[in-house]
Hints:
The complex is a heterodimer of chains A (323) and B (278). By secondary structure, chain A is an all-alpha fold. Chain A has helices at 2-35, 40-45, 53-62, 69-81, 95-130, 135-149, 152-166, 181-215, 218-225, 230-255, 257-260, 262-267, 273-283, 286-314, 316-319; strands at residues 87-88, 93-94. Chain A starts with a helix and ends with a helix. Chain B has helices spanning 3-11, 14-31, 66-101, 105-119, 122-132, 137-147, 150-163, 167-174, 179-215, 226-235, 244-265. In chain B, helix 3 packs parallel to helix 6. Chain B is elongated, with a radius of gyration of 22 Å.
Amino acid sequence: xxxxxxxxxxxxxxAIRYLISGFIVLVIVFLVPRLMPGDPVRxxxxxxxxxxxxxxxALRSEMGLDLPLNEQFIHYLLDLxxxxxxxSYHLNGPVLNILLGRIPWTLLLIGTSILxxxxxxxxxxxxxxxxxxxxxxxxxxxSSLLISSIPPYILGLxxxxxxxxxLHLFPIKGLYDTPDIFSIIYHLTLPVLVLxxxxxxxxxxxxxxxxxxxxxxxxxxxxxxxxxxxxxxxKRHVAKNALLPVLTLIALDFGFLFSGALFIEIVFSLQxxxxxxxxxxxxxxIPVLTGSFLVISVFVILANLSVDLISVLIDPRVRMGRx
Amino acid sequence: xxxxxxxxxxxxxxxxxxxISILLCFLLWSLVxxxxxxxxDHTRYKPYLYPSFLHPLGTDDIGHDILSLVIYSARISLIxxxxxxxxxxxxxxxxxxxxxFFPGIIDDILMGLTDIVLIIPKIPVIILxxxxxxxxxxxxxxxxxxxxxxxTARVVRSRVMQVSGAGYIQSARCxxxxxxxxxxxEILPVIYPVVLPKLMLVVxxxxxxxxxxxxxxxSDPTMNSWGKMIADAFTHGGFIRGMWWWYTPPALCxxxxxxxCVRIGMIWEQTGTETAFE
Lengths: 323, 278
């Protein structure tokens, strides 16, 4: 059947792309600390630690850094399969454990914001796209354009300055004072609000554009001619078709879960992945940086994969091999 | 299509005039900063001064006049945004044209490359590279330029595929013009309505990235940019002292620049929506 062969060749071509991207990410993580100027042992351990030449030599052979590069790469891959991401000498622990300690907080912060932003953005975007000439639709579109043009950290700083610093409504920093649920909610409200605004405005703009282009097509006009109320046309017919670009955007947001929060976590001093990466940048803590980069990349690649799968499952045009 | 008339009509819109004059103002700041301020960006006065007649925006933690810093920083911010944007557009347009003009194996390889660049997470790669090497202006421009061409390539490719079957291109082929000549003289002039908005969007994206990287302390420490000013205010006590006149102006400049770029990019947007019954 032609449809199935088209699908098969599509799968093969996509698979090759994902394998190459994954390989490039691995090579970057492998090569960056080894080929950078300076001693690789120093790069991995950190420049501000004093080591005697004997210790340096011992570390070098222990990490296998005196082997040729191709053997090092095999060792490195084997390490990855046993989930060994390296050891941070600054934070004195295996990188994997450090990451696992930070991931839940970031997941809580970003996961909530993405979901809230997706719900609000899709609904508001569908309504503004359906009635683009109304005053509230114009206001929403304009403010979304404004918000999505502001770098997220500037928006965060502005909110922190207004609501925490001058109005004293929210705490300045941290995840909690006492580890109970109310304190955590109190501390996370403002960062979640900023991120939600940011995600919602982008989703709104995409959904609005998508609904506007669907609205001009033949089938909604036909439905209206049949006497179906406008709200039901939007809900049952147009929204479903318009949803695809937004769904892929939301899936990609989940892929950038850990790097998306970077700036917001720094601004609000939350102890998640983002502030971990920031501290690692300041200390030149290469194992933590490469480890976080690897985790982020794996998530981004998985998100892209799920975008492709979603579009195949939802959209028959993609399934026929007509992208 | 009376696109040219459409554009001249749109240029008279007040919002657009404001956007263009903001960009022109920043351009003037970056060309002749000394005309706009009586101080310069390296003389040191008393630190943490409040706004006064002599220093309309006060001074920062090492005593630089903040107004002059804002004006002098325009240069680096504009250079990074426009050179990185230009570089990525050149790469994207060339890859898009070649890929759209030669369907088959070349198209497959180039689009595969585009997909791969699309998949690889960019900001983390840039952070990793900048954190490990010494932060440097050229490196930042190169990395931003080399990473942000993929959407341009896709848009250009689909537009080229639409036009390459057109009669005038067929006849150019029959007349024996080489593919290179056709690509430059026949295709390039018709795809600019999709390229120019992309350019403005990429410039806006590059300035967001530059501001974000400077905030992480990953920009060239010897160069002043708006992002670096905000980072300094955040880490060197401007924020906790409530010196809003320190961090608000550069933030405002970044946002205004991005908004003007986005607004100017919207000139070429098609306004007429499709109607079902024509």
